[in-house]
Amino acid sequence: MKNCSSLKRIRLEKNRLTGNISEDFGIYPSLNFINLSDNEFYGEISPTWALCKNLGSLLTARNNITGRIPPEIGNSTQVHFLDLSLNHLIGEIPKGLTKPTLLTRLILTGNQLSGGIPREVGLFSNLEYLDLSANRLSQSIPESIGDLLKLHYLNLSSNNFSQRIPVQMGKLSQLTELDLSHNMLSGEIPRQFESLQSLSTLNLSYNNLSGNITFFDKLRGLTYIDIAHNGLQGPILNTSVFQNASIQALEGNKGLRGNVSGFKPCKLSKKSHKLLYTIMFPLLGGVNGLSLAAMALFIGFKRQKKMQMNFDAQCCIGKGGYGSVYRVELSSGALVSVLPSSSLEIQLLGNPVSLSLLIHLTVLPVVPVKYLKAASSPNFPVSKACAALGVPV
User: Fold this and answer.
1) pLDDT digit string (tens) for 182-201?
2) Which residues is 257 bridged to in the sheet?
3) Position 393 in a domain
4) What is the DSSP string of 339-379?
5) What digits encode the pLDDT tens for the residues 225-235?
6) Which pLDDT does position 43 carry in this prediction?
7) Does residue 276 share a domain with residue 251?
8) Transmembrane stretches, by residue range (predicted)?
9) Most buried by CB count within 10 Å: which residue of 166, 181, 184, 388?
10) Which residues constitute the domain of residue 120?
11) 246 and 286 belong to one structural domain
């Protein structure tokens, strides 16, 4: 075969062929496709492959090839599919490899490549599929990876990447599968991820990520998620992808709470102290053509029981001038927003009032009392609003 210079296609995959890949093949000026995958070839990838000027696909996966990736392959400007996976390649990914602007698929998984991803990776303007998983790559993920606007598959798992996930990844609007698992990534998951509207599969497990996951409800197309073994916290979203996730896909995050098997719900605990807990639902309007849509305050318990409710800091959903607001699951299973207070009563229009509890099934924002006052008037006082809701004042 070494002297068959007129060859255009070579397909030898899925055999038990053996031989030195750097010696048994020649220069083929007309060659546009070669697949040597799933054999027992050994040796190193020869720089002479770069002399095959029409080469479009070079596939040598699952062999015993050693050595480094020759940077000369970058001179093969017609290459659009390069698969060197599951061999024994070492060294860094050469910067020269980023020259083929026609490259659509690059698969280097399952080697022993080290160093970082070249910043020049952003020059792969046509790249759709990138798999660098199961290597020894390190450093940070380059920001230029956000320039791969046609990318729909990205797998960087099982490496040693560290530092933060670049926010530029939020620009990958066509991305459907993203796997960054089994690295040493830290910091919060970028909120820019909410722009990944095509994303269906996300794996961020086994990193050192922190922060909450509340913005994941924006990812409407997400069907599979694995965020296990990080430092994530806050409520688990009541969306299908989380409710259908296995415990193994969420475990290892001590700060996560929610109505998922194996996790602690955000519930109130009782002790001996006086309390005032105010549950207020959003005010949609006041007077002058606006209407007061809903309002309820819960003050004390019947017979003025003495108790204290301790709130888990992980259940905090916001802070303001009136204190912290907590997401709480009541014994009925209802979820409410709660604003704790140290007094036993609250002044509405200068008069102390005691209101019964109005339970709502959705976590809603808390409205400070001053807005309740501002929304009332002689024509429509707060007492009438409460009466309309069946809440005694």
Assistant:
1) 999 999 999 999 999 999 99
2) 235
3) no
4) EEESSS-EEETTEEE-------SS------HHHHHHH--TT
5) 999 999 999 99
6) 96
7) no
8) 275-301
9) 181
10) 9-257
11) no
